[in-house]
Amino acid sequence: MDPLSRIERALNAAVAQADAPGCPKLLARAMRASVFPRGARIRSRLCLAVAMACGEDAPDVTDAAAAAIELLHCASLVHDDLPCFDDADTRRGRPSVHCQFGEPLAVLAGDALILLAFQVLAEAAAVSPVRLAPLIGVIGRGVGVPHGIVAGQAWECEDSADLALYQRQKTGALFASATMAGAAAAGAEVTPWRELGLRLGEAFQVADDLRDAVGAPEELGKPVGQDLAHQRPNAVLELGLNGAIGWLGELAERAVESVPACPGRADLRSHIVSETSRLLPRQLAKVAA
Predict the structure, then answer these.
(1) pTM for the full model?
(2) Packing angle between helix 194-214 and helix 241-257, nearest 10 degrees?
(3) Measured between alpha carbons, how far is 223 from 215 in angstroms, rounded to an integer?
(4) How many domains does the chain have?
(5) For 279, phi and psi rounded to 5 degrees?
(6) Which of 49, 58, 114, 286 is 20 to 30 Å from the Cα of 1, by its Cα?
(7) H runs (alpha helix) in 81-102
(8) With contact defined as beta carbons under 8 Å apart, do 49 and 178 qualify?
(9) pLDDT < 50 positions in the chain
(10) Residue ranges making up the domain that contains 188
(11) What does the pLDDT look like over 26-59, one tens digit per residue?
């Protein structure tokens, strides 16, 4: 089964737990709307790619790790769109969850997805219990404090923030969790995989900053100009357009170089080159050439 099909199957099975008798129907619908229709699934695909490069031997554990990463990412988007943060009306070309179901259910749906992520891990790890602790550790650290995506979001509430630190936490932390979780799911050492995730996360955030600065809402499926409107740290605002494009290219190169030794290193490096080449918005390709 191809990676995207594996991810969608695992996510469908996870979210279907909310359809059980006795669960509030609107909450179940809000959770499903938070996860589907799918986005690019970049983090979960990265988790699978690392696991396969490390010699995956427990596919159910890998699928659970990838699903957990994606559920946490989706939860962060639901909360990020709330009026108290971005106040975004659309996500992936559709009304955001709070616009469809109201703020209370959006908050609860995000909370439920966070807990569901760890529930999925616990259930799958029954076939390989020794891998549960490393998985919970690396994924939990990528989400919480002191350096996870919650901490990254909280920097927006401070008077000032260092751009690199802010981006490393808000975006890079979950990418690092994805690479490390992929290694953990395959029974490999996790620490060498952190740098790759951080590099990819920072590259993705710079690309997102570029899209926010020059992209079109109808193309991205979400509002643009949010960083300027909310006075948030942004690579384009700090480095300029050309500087941000150059930094994105450098980060992509560093990511490829940081892939640790593993049985599938060559294939994984090719996968990363392919993924990072698509990060630069199309309308900026000529500027970078």
Answers:
(1) 0.93
(2) 160
(3) 9
(4) 1
(5) -75, -35
(6) 114
(7) 97-101
(8) no
(9) 289
(10) 3-288
(11) 999 999 999 999 889 999 999 999 999 999 999 9
